[in-house]
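Page 47, continued from p. 46.
Same chain as before, 1285 aa.
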Amino acid sequence: MNSDSHLPRKIGSLNCLCHNDSPSSSLFGETQCNLLGYDSPVASIGDDKLPPLEHHRTCSLVQLESAEPRVLEQFPLECPRQERRRRLVSWGAMELQHNHISNNNINSSSASFEISSSKPRRNHRQTRHKSLQFEDNLLSNEANPRLIYIGDPRRTNDKYEFSGNEIRTSKYTIITFLPKNLFIQFHRVAYLYFLAIAALNQLPPLAVFGRTVSLFPLLFVLCVTAIKDGYEDWRRHRSDRNENNRVAHVHQNGEFRLKEWKKIQAGEVVKICADESIPCDMVLLGSSDPSGLAYIQTMNLDGESNLKTRYARQETALAVSEECLISGLIRCEQPNRNIYEFTANMEFSGQRFPLSQSNIVLRGCQLKNTQWIIGVVVYAGQETKAMMNSAASPSKRSKLESYMNRETLWLSVFLFVMCLVVAAGMGLWLLRHKEELDTLPYYRKIYFTNGKDKLKRYKYYGIPMETFFSFLSSIIVFQIMIPISLYITMELVRLGQSYFMIEDRDMCDSSSGSRFQCRSLNINEDLGQIRYVFSDKTGTLTENKMEFQRASVYGKNYGRSLLTVDPLLEKNIAATDRRRWKLKSEVAVDSELMELLHKDVIGDERIAAHEFFLTLAACNTVIPILDHGTSSSCIKGELHEEVKAIDYQGESPDEQALVAAASAYGYTLFERTSGHIVIDVNGEKLRLDVLGLHEFDSVRKRMSVVIRFPDGAVKVLVKGADTSMFSILADDTEMGDHIRNATQSHLTEYSSQGLRTLVVAARDLTDAELEMWQCRYEDASTSLTDRVMKLRQTAAFIECNLKLLGATAIEDKLQDGVPEAIEALRQAGIKVWVLTGDKQETAISIGLSCMLLTSDMQQIIINGNSEDECRNLLADAKSKYGVKSLTGRNQNLNSKSNAETDYLDIPVDMKLSNVSGWNAGMKDGISRVPLALIIDGNSLVYILEKKDMESELFDLATSCRVVLCCRVAPLQKAGIVDLIKSRIDDLTLAIGDGANDVSMIQMADVGVGICGQEGRQAVMASDFAMGQFRFLKRLLLVHGHWNYQRVGYLVLYNFYRNAVFVLMLFWYILCTAFSTTSALTDWSSVFYSVIYTSIPTIVVGILDKDLSHKTLLRYPKLYGAGHRQEAYNLRLFWITMIDTLWQSLVLFYIPLFTYRESSIDIWSMGSLWTIAVVVLVNMHLAMDIQRWEIFTHVAVWGSIFITYACMVVLDSIPVFPNYWTIYHLANSPTYWLTILLIIVVALLPRFLFKVVHQIFWPSDIQIAREAEILRKHNYLGSKQDQGAG
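Result:
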């Protein structure tokens, strides 16, 4: 019997005409089948006339009318109907935004949805967040499909509208590199500022510095960045070149010849051999397997290591196996980013049949366990799904950097005021001395030399213009008030910090071999200020390694006593001639259930158990992998024939666990093709024809398979979530109600134990139902528009009146260290929210086991089924627990102190100075019962739709210590993150491991991906990636704290370092008649921030540690320093500026008073000021360094040495005006005493302030550091005592 005998066209339903005859047909839309005849030529796009119909079959009008209302009744979409388009934050539509069934405008005529429709439909697609557009169902318009002529690339691309297969991931070419790179760099406003400064300095009236020297800082920064960008792009070019020059076998002139990838075109037929990569997106035509089956690995595409099955249509597979010439037409959707969907149909040998995701292999995948495949190219080059998904994740900017821009604005104000003072002073001075300008020894306005210019103006433009030029010249002189070097310094510091995070062995996962990854260098310091953590559950908090634990079969509970041995062998039930299967991993089985399955009696319970495990083995997409090596086993003297090892590969760990469990109970799936599966049922081979498969989706929340048994009986086997299954069960007998109630009770028990549950059901299909379903299935699966919706509606036709068989419970164990990590984060003042798609009971159980929920918490449960109910539940909860709105609480939630952020006593053996200050932040006896909010996805659908309800949810959620969201869709996860992110300035972090977490990860301020079992899509979209959730504790509490403290100090220090230099010049200009002249050489001014003082800041920003990692992990509440912004805030900025003002006055006036009676020239004074300011800022830095390393010593003291060396070199060049000045100064003791006096006087107020503040108002970190030092001294003292003893 042909394996394809079950296909719809074999029973004459391919060309059936299902009239739209029911008033309720809005559910099914236009369900008429295609009218194209097999033997007719291809209809042109947009034709109103169709070829004559040669073979057709009309579905029964009575059948449609009788079946339609039942389908409407039994097909409850899980989401409520919406009467208007959702707003941006309406994430909860569960992917129904563009599938509003109630709004479908159905034409009552016989117009079908064949591809030659004359009136294209409008594509109502709502606007979504940029990072979420990947979720859209990007089906092309039916009137504009892509036409691929198999084996005829010239005809396919006759209009040259399709791209070639050459890819380019690089940004630049040789021609575009310079303009494009400069354009990108000048997006930074500071660069434009310095470009304007350099341009002003080129004008003769404003040439304060040498024209070449003024360009040096900007050119240095631009060149460094350009070299880095150029090197990265060169690597991309090299990678592109290697990729494009790879070769594949392409069918040309009747044979397969090697051809470079970049020359492959759409429409060409390509042959791929085992372990080779797929060069472009291809529709599978055939494979080495006679049934057209192929195995591919998609690791390069989505990171998943499990093998996937792809099928060639039996029609083309047969032609390939017979080596026939293949020609035909493929109509497919336009290129899009959705790698999980493909909508097309093929016309081949006068037949039309559908193509789906299972028929296409994508670029970047590898062929595995298959000798060869042959396919036709449909998308090439930049139009492949892999390349369309290669866009980088949204760029993020750190919170501290945004604050830095605020302070930069203040510095700009200071700069403007100083320039205004100088300009005003210049104007007043010129007015006062306007009569003697030509007689002053240092000023003149006309030429006195003989010649043609005698008595002409000498660079004098009148008092108003001189005042204006003085203002512009002042900007040039004071330009480094805005620290251009800070941008380069921060990038280098972040790079160094990332290196040490990557090399941290305590964040390496030894089990998977995955290391920590820094995928973004812009937000290292944000790790030290996280207030909210949004976490996925499955695979993030849990291992995502499923183990079958419990089962409810026909209302009876099994699994309380499990055995890991094989009971069949133990009890000698199996016959000696039965084939045995050995699973890769042991599965525990229930002996009582095993006995039931092997009873000879025929009863309802026995039949239900048989169908239950048959459903587990058949209703899936799992691939059996056989180990052809066999072995024999001898138990109690009896020899069993052979034991074959079998393993299962699947896209879902849940499915793998269920199929493995079915095998352990004697129902072993060991063969799968596109048309049938073979199951070993207790040694007897059972071949089942697969008539159709409706895969799981987030709306139906179930999957079903239609199978034909050898005796001709047809069944639909269904498994899915309990919320979607119980509503489609048959209501028939009292016994059925008993089984339903018992099963629901068991499900509640399983969920309370933290197990993942599924409900299993089945029913028989009559011939009439089968024929009607096949007609609709064929029609929906060949549709180019709304295929997903139509298939969903077709599935609803058979997924009704089901017989309940039972339920399964799978355990997903917690990862190591999760409870400890969550407790540490809570003590650090971080709120952990869990967003999961699991049942509420399961999520609550996991929350209790991982210490997210505690017994003392008051649980607030929001499970609403309507808008009014949700509104009432929120209002009741707020009033009951006294939750105030945002306006009623502190306006700035950042400044409020959570209960978790109270100070802790740090025990040390010796008495600390003023330990009582440690508890200074305790609240005044406020004791509130901690709240935990538990809300389901259905409620979020209503709440996220209304602004007022969103605000109420926000008020309630932020008042709770824990929030647990259950049954949430991927877009709802992003909506919850946006709920917090859009209302307050607290930083958010999202962590997940699967593709369903990508939207949440990209929405949060910081995204962390887990290298888990669900592929690497979350990793590829994240800012940081790691192997286990427990590493988040060290990432935030240790590295986050260090990075925040370092970068915060780095920014303040850079502001101080440049401001003290500029103020010193400002005081000098005030003493030189506002002339904007400088005592420092041009090179000294340029080298100050680029060479003299830059290296110490970088080294300290990378290596300095205020506390050891042991202390930070022991006392998580120290992390609260980031929440309170202790390392960088506006108050610290103003204190720093006041200190800078004092130090600049000391720096300028002490040398001035010291040498006021001497004959020292101005260049000697400039040399002294240069050395003094470099030594001063380095000593300032040395006062604040917490931990000295060898590199720190080299950087700080080496910087002073380098400054002296540069001064010696510059002063040794005769053409410079400061020639030999350093040699005269260094011989005088006054020079060295002056520098020492400057350092002492300038830093004395700062030193006294630090001492007084640490004694009377110590911070948490200062007390912890003191305790750490005392603990270390005690340890060393005890070691010495032991050595003396």
